[in-house]
Amino acid sequence: MNRRIILKSMALAAFLATGFELPAFAATEVAGVKFDDTVTVAGKELKLNGAGIRTKVIFKVYAAGLYLAEKKSTVADVLAVPGPRRVAITMLREVSSDDFGKAFMDGLNANTEKTERTKILPQTMKFGEVFAQIQTLKKGDQLLLDWTPGEGTQCYLNAKKIGELMPDQAFYNAVLRIWLGDKPADTSLKPALLGEK
């Protein structure tokens, strides 16, 4: 070995010995969509609990991520966790608001008992009005569903507020059960949101 190679090797060894680390990845990628490992909702830091893809037949419809104050692996724990929460959805294909709204209602009805559906009906109707304001969800559009204790559920489309606040936590939990209920919209998305590898 010549002297230059030895010096370079020693310099590299010294550099690595100083505790240099490769940067940690600050996002999880699903179908080309990046989900930050943490987000802030209502001034609180939330962690990415899990993320996955909603498929219908063979088509990838959207990528979704669930954010909670602390990671949870069971549906009961997710529904009971205190503090703010977020579901982040990024569209992977264009979908009409009618189709998206229908899928939402089908998922809600399939996973919510009749008495609870009656209780949250006014908020469900308000949520339906949100989809009436949007003709189409385009590929790349981001829909956020945030729950803030003491305030309610707020929807955002591409960082812009849409619709009114829906104050009842039972409504937000009913929305979560679309993906996490006994009859989830996508059986492979449910375990992904619960953080299963």
From TrEMBL:
Residues 1-26 form the signal peptide. The keyword Ligase does not apply. InterPro entries: Chalcone_isomerase (IPR016087), Chalcone_isomerase_3-sand (IPR016088), Chalcone_isomerase_sf (IPR036298). SUPFAM superfamilies: Chalcone isomerase. Transmembrane segments: none annotated. Gene3D superfamilies: 3.50.70.10. Residues 27-195 form the Chalcone isomerase domain. It comes from the Bacteria. Keywords: Lipoprotein, Membrane, Signal, Transmembrane. Pfam families: Chalcone_3. This is Lipoprotein transmembrane. It comes from Duganella aceris.
